[in-house]
Write a structure and sequence with these properties.
This protein has strands at about 10-15, 40-50, 60-65, 70-75, 80-85, 90. The chain is mostly beta strands. It has one domain (about 10-15, about 30-90).
Length: about 90
């Protein structure tokens, strides 16, 4: 685990892998460049919060964020994901 501390209202997050339901095998021909539409929102686990954050989220909570607002940084072959606190839609308890 990286020794990282977020600053400037950033939240350090980890993506939560979604559990996909078992799919039936069906053959359908689609164009080679076809991509399945995915939700623009994703759940993340909070790992750390900058001291100046006022959103009230804490490490260990699950938050919902728009995927395009997440920054991915690679340091020492580790990936660190950050989001600015005002891009958090809310917390999730499921």
């Amino acid at each position: 685990m990286a020794n990282f501390t977020p600053v400037n209202r950033h939240i350090w997050i980890f993506p939560i892998e979604s559990k996909k339901p078992k799919e039936k095998k069906t053959t359908i021909l689609v164009p080679d460049d076809y991509k399945v539409a995915e939700s623009p929102y994703k759940a993340f686990k909070v790992n750390g919060v900058a001291e100046d954050c006022t959103s009230g989220v804490s490490p260990g909570e699950t938050i919902v964020v728009e995927n395009s607002m997440v920054s991915e940084i690679e340091l020492d072959s580790e990936k660190i994901y950050l989001v600015l606190e005002n891009y958090v839609y809310g917390t999730y308890r499921g």
